[in-house]
Write a structure and sequence with these properties.
By secondary structure, the protein is mainly alpha-helical. The protein is 79% helix and 0% strand.
Amino acid sequence: LYLQNKKYDQAVQTFQELVQQAPESEDGYIGLGETYQAMGDTAKAVEVYQQGLTVNPNFHILRHNLSEIYSSRKDWKAAIDLYKQALQHDSTEISFQLRMGDLFYQKGDTTKALEIFQETAKKHPNDWRAFYSLGRIHFSLKQDEKALENFRSVIEKNPQISDAWLLIGIIYLRQDSLKAAETQFRKGVEQFPDDWRMNFYLGVVLNRTEKYQEAITYLQRVVQAEPQNVDAILSLANAHMNLKHYDDAISLCELVLNDDPNNLQAILTLAAVYDSKKEYDQSEKLYQKALKLDPENPVALNNYSYSLAVQGIRLPEAMEMVLRALETDSTNGAYWDTLGWIYYKMGDYQKALQHVQKSIEKREASWEVLDHLGDIYLKLGQPQKARDYWERALQKDPTNEEIRKKLGKGES
């Protein structure tokens, strides 16, 4: 109580008396050490923890607290030595092995950390924790197959470890395996319906696969549970924009911008909404603001470039911007589509085809990219191919009146 109320002198006196009266109890040492830490006197805290471990090497909380102090000082040798000594007393205690692996990983010695966790997993094949640690390291190294293998082992041993379900889905998402990611996050939501992260990532995947109405269901859950979650608010705005619920999308963007006027993601999402509404004066101001905040931001450069291309204006400027975006990220299919569409507007249909095709090599084609290919093939004198692509675009966006008109012209 003294410690909670920051009455440190009284707390020190109370815990000192407890240590004297019951030196075999860990509680007095813990309270005294944590009081000194709260006072900012880590030297005295270290002294207390060391004293307690001398009395009883099995005071595990003292060892952990002391290792945390050493870690914060980057004194990795001292922290690791604590657990080496502990393992000499009890070589079978898994928590010591796991903590030592964590310390080597924090130190930056990934090879040694992996070695410890692999050895621990062999010694304790039914305990999920070493497999989870292995999965996290492989995940951070982008060694996806090894990470997946270990996270699946975690779920097999303990299905209640939500992070393992989540990270499997994130791996699929970063691999652009959207179908697998969707399946995984659906399972995750079923298993952990109140975990906002599962709902959020499922909403993100559904946005990516153009299932916007369903995405709204899951993203609204997140916003209700986490009203300050900017990523969820803007993902929800994106879903509303794609369903042409423009007022809802604008309100959500403005909700973020009222709190953070320079939020780049909110500025760019709002600009995209105004582009969709063909209110280009509004989007122009927002793109210029975004590029003042971050002149080399590839998303801002690409989206501004595409906005100009759609309008058919300032095409050399649009070309220069999208090329800068591609210098930063040449793997983004949307940027290649923008470049192709600029060439289309310039009348160079062969180059337009070349670059838009490169776009679908990089990612699954959206209705817009398929529509672009239809327009390009029509200009290249291949009306049947144009029609094929428009049909595919319409399958992805069945309510798109512009594509329906193009197909109507093709039939007449």
